[in-house]
Fold these 3 entries.
Entry 1:
Amino acid sequence: MTNKEIVINYAEYDSLDQLQEQDRLLAEAAVKASANAYTPYSHFNVGAAVRLSDGTVVTGANQENMAYPSGLCAERTAMFHAAAQYPDKAMEAIAVAAEKDGRLCPIPATPCGACRQVMAEYQSRGGRAMEVLMVGAEKIWKFSKVDDILPLIFDSLKQ
């Protein structure tokens, strides 16, 4: 038997002002997108923004439905929209921000497992690392690739 270790590296920022301009703009787009969420049940608004390889930014927001689990997370809403509208553009970064009761959550909201797996597939499809920013009012976490938030990515079907 051999013991192995998984190490996750990420940068932590205290405010949007500390980010490079392209990351700050992406984070701000995610925060703004949260206003478009449809959340009559949880009142937990999530916005996501995807930056494509040509600089285009596509946003999405979570959409709930009374027939749970028929809704969709903000991250997948943004990624699916980006892939459908810009199929030849790689996704180079995604930012996620969440609000509760009209206020940006203090610490970043983290994507669910399904969203992480979709991010991993688009990262693979794009042939490049996809950065992930998780935005909170007091902290912002930046990961250089999806692998850092989803170790041991499911890719067993690849040949």
Note: The chain has three helices and seven strands.
Entry 2:
Amino acid sequence: MEKYWGEIVRWLAAAIGVIAGWYGGWTAGSRVLVTLMVVDYVSGCACALTGHSTKTETGHFWSQVAFLGLLKKALVMAVILVAAQLDKALGSAGGGSENVVMFRSAAEFFYIATEALSITENAGLMGVPIPKPLRKALEALRDKNDGEEE
């Protein structure tokens, strides 16, 4: 059995390496975004399990809604992948080996702000007080990275 686990771990590590290469490596923004995605998903499930969700009519957990949440997070990662590939194209278009991270950074910061805002909303639904300046700062960061002006 150990032989199979060792083989599984090797293949998994290889797959993760390939995917990380497509993204242009594992950056601080990537770590923050993935961490916030996990916390948002868990806090959203906690909201639903305690009957405070706004995603269902009853406010309770529904597996289809949970699956759609995971699907949305996968699509966010697809958008980040597209942004990373655009950055690579811009870097190679200049003829040099400069590391362009314009699109990826913009997408990561937008989704970091969105995930952080969602976490604060979930906390608020569960009765955790949210400091108004924090909420306003997250909304401003999200809107700034989306190109919206108020």
Note: Helices lie at 2-23, 28-49, 63-93, 102-125, 132-146.
Entry 3:
Amino acid sequence: MFVDRVNVNLRAGNGGAGVVSFLRQKGRPKGKPTGGAGGRGGNVRVVADENEASLLGYRHNPHRSAESGTHGQGDVKHGKAGEDLVLTVPTGTVLFDADGEMLADLVKHGQEVTVLQGGRGGLGNVALASKANRSPGFAEQGEYGEEAWITFELKLVADAALIGFPNVGKSTLIAHVSAAQPKIADYPFTTLQPNLGVVSVGGSEFVLADIPGLIEGAAEGKGLGHEFLRHTERARVLVMLLDPSSLQTETVQDQYRILLDELEQHRPDLVTRPRLVAVNKSDIDHVDTVTLAAELGEPKVYAISAVTGDGLEELMLAVAGRVGQVVREAPEREGYVLHRPVGRQIDVRRDDDGVWVVDGRAATRAVALDDLTRPAAADFAAKRLARVGVDDALRAAGAQPGDDVRIGDLTFEFTEEDDDEEEE
């Protein structure tokens, strides 16, 4: 089963928690801090693999998670980092976030993108010691890993694509000129998924795609139009296959016009893509290709028979030549990976209940301690918040002493702190 579009729920690993631990020594009643840090959570990476043919596996198993980091231990033993989750997808897969923004376009084997970051591991008390507090009795919690719904959408990477109405003989043609084995029968919409074949001719090779039959209105979704048209987008050359037989209700001239209209409605640049025109079934219906070429405004129209093979070598040589020309003239497609700017570290807003809500990784990290009921831990967090700018941001937003402030699940009262002591 060929699957070319799936929604997957991905979760990066959580960071492990830091630990509070002490080595009791003579003359140091509080003990020497020896608590190790937690390991970071695994990232989620997506890698293009030319050996993958479909996204089927993700339809059956759409929920995937990276490994979480382990917690720190005493004796300054740090937790193990979680393994990254590496997902392989076919070359030509495009990734979109939940808002429809493209994250990556992976067109080469081995090309990859990190879509979700694992949570940072929490620091143990050995890393939190300072001149002000040489034996802290608290440690950091690990951060949660990112989670998101991501859409994987496959667009076939082919050198040339066969475009035509249902039942014009595209599947028969690709089966004749390559090792592809598409389903073939005498009724419309036999092909419900694209097929790829490698064509060897005249010392050249190229990849040919058989795009399922298009009908008028395909760009608006008729006949699964959008699903089929998507696979034309990467083709360097389009081969317009026309059918003069009585199986088609439209003339070859009308077929050509409708196909171009649907391509243009889907993506305007497709009508300027290099193309060749062929008329199939020359063994049963004769067409004056010279006159037809003049009517269509094309330099040449090829007469072929996908069943007998007549004219196929000439057409395939022409396709190979045009593909080679495009490759020489056009730069190689490198793909695309979105480099997102770092989000705002602190964002302050007031909710409907009058509570000041502070968002941002810097603020969340500042209060991510294991036990804020300890006065020393609460004082440590307060100094961190001031240092990263949360106090200044709250004042700038209009917060007054005594107002409630919420960071994550923590709600506290805003107060003016003395900055006499600095954390080191």
Note: The chain has three domains: 5-154, 160-329, 347-413.
